């Protein structure tokens, strides 16, 4: 038998075949992404998601997209959409094991934005990203999303759960939400009919909601012992983490009964930046700060050194939604909100614009 050397090209392939044995680390799970955990989460949250289903939902979880019929009875429907997150409030929620309520915050920030146009929320989608999926914590978060959807009247029809190893610190996660609503084109609340002499009604917030937490966390970092400070029957940290109030049902019912001229969701930018967004050119407002009460969390912030002007442009300061109405409608609108469980205050008036479009006295 003749002996011949193995060609170099062939020899290299043999060596590669021998040495490239399967490496346990070279799997998706080995690199930090556990597909089985994701599937376990879907099974875990199915019952919570089912509680949010409206009649227009087609199918269930598991498809590539959520399907939703346009509700019947609309003549000229307009879809209104919104997207938001919870911001650095999540850092405190993670630190203090408050995973059950941040999902409510997520829905609130989106649903309260679209109801400003007079839109009824139809459906919601969430995005949850973490370096390593903890099914129990994720299920608590999504359970909160489902509760928020129930409060807003929206169906949770889908979302995305993602593991991104190396993108966040261990044990952390981030959230985003997306909401779609509907309103008749001729019923959109635009603020165009607001005139001088109209009145402002403020709906009480449940606390800082989901804005200003970078500043809140900075104050807490200076005086960390304050987190356990007892104020009444609650700790300060509980007051700060109180979930964002969802105003959707009360606003839609009151608007249908009495007609609202304008709405401003008091989010980032506080009272001074958000109210002008709904005012026609040439108009401003005067707010009487003594006309409403607020969470003690805001008193703590001021006492800790946050200046009043910074308070008004960073936080809602106790007013989560501003409602603008004709002066003749004030009593009826106040009564309507009260009957629907909202604490409402007559807080100011529309005036001719000055250098400061929002004056707080």
Walk me through this protein's architecture.
The chain is built from 12 helices and 14 strands. By secondary structure, the chain is an alpha+beta fold. The strands form 4 sheets. Strands 10-12-7-13-11-14 form a 6-stranded mixed beta sheet. The N terminus is likely disordered.
Beta content comes to 15-25%
> Low-confidence spans: pLDDT under 50, at least 5 residues?
1-7, 12-18
Number of helices: 12
**Based on the structure given, which CATH architecture of the largest domain is correct?**
Alpha-Beta Complex
How much helix is in the residues?
25-40%
Sheet with the most strands? 6 strands, mixed
Distance between the ends: 106 Å
Shape: globular
CATH superfamily of the largest domain: PurM-like C-terminal domain
How many whole angstroms does the radius of gyration measure?
Answer: 26 Å
How many separate domains? 2
Q: Which fold name is given in CATH as the topology of the largest domain?
A: Phosphoribosyl-aminoimidazole Synthetase, Chain A, domain 2
Strand order of the largest sheet: 10-12-7-13-11-14
Instruction: Quickly give the structural class.
Output: alpha+beta
Mean pLDDT rating: 91
The CATH first-level class of the largest domain comes to Alpha Beta
Tally of extended strands?
A: 14
Question: Helices and strands, in N-to-C order?
Answer: HHEEEHHEHEEEHEEHHEHEHHEHEE
């Amino acid at each position: 038998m003749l002996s011949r050397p193995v060609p170099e090209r062939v020899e290299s392939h043999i060596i590669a075949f021998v040495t490239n044995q399967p490496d346990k680390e070279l799997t998706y799970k080995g690199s930090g992404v556990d597909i089985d955990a994701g599937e376990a989460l879907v099974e875990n949250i199915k019952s919570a998601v089912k509680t949010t289903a409206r009649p227009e939902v087609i199918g269930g979880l598991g498809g590539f997209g959520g399907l939703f019929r346009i509700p019947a009875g609309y003549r000229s429907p307009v879809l209104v959409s919104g997207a938001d997150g919870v911001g650095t409030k999540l850092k405190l929620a993670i630190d203090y094991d408050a995973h059950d309520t941040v999902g409510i915050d997520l829905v609130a920030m989106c649903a309260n934005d679209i109801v400003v146009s007079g839109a009824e929320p139809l459906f919601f989608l969430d995005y949850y990203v973490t370096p390593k999926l903890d099914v129990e914590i994720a299920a608590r978060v999504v359970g909160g999303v489902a509760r928020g959807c129930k409060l807003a009247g929206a169906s949770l029809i889908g979302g995305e759960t993602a593991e991104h190893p190396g993108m966040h610190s261990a044990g952390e996660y981030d959230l985003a939400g997306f909401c779609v609503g509907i309103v008749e084109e001729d019923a959109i609340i635009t603020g165009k009919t607001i005139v001088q002499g109209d009145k402002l009604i403020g709906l009480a917030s449940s606390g800082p909601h989901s804005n200003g937490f970078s500043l809140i966390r900075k104050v807490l970092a200076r005086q960390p012992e304050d987190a356990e400070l007892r104020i009444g029957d609650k700790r300060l940290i509980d007051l700060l983490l109180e979930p964002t109030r969802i105003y959707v049902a009360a606003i839609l019912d009151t608007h249908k009964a009495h007609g609202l001229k304008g709405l401003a969701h008091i989010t980032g930018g506080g009272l001074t930046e958000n109210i002008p967004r709904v005012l026609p050119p040439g108009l401003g407002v005067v707010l009487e700060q003594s006309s409403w009460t607020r969470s003690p969390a805001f008193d703590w912030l001021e006492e800790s050194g946050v200046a009043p002007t910074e308070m008004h442009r960073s936080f809602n300061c106790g007013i989560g939604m501003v409602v603008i109405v004709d002066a003749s409608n004030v009593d009826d609108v106040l009564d309507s909100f009260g009957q629907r469980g909202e604490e409402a205050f007559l807080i100011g008036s529309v005036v001719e614009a000055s250098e400061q479009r929002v004056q707080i006295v």
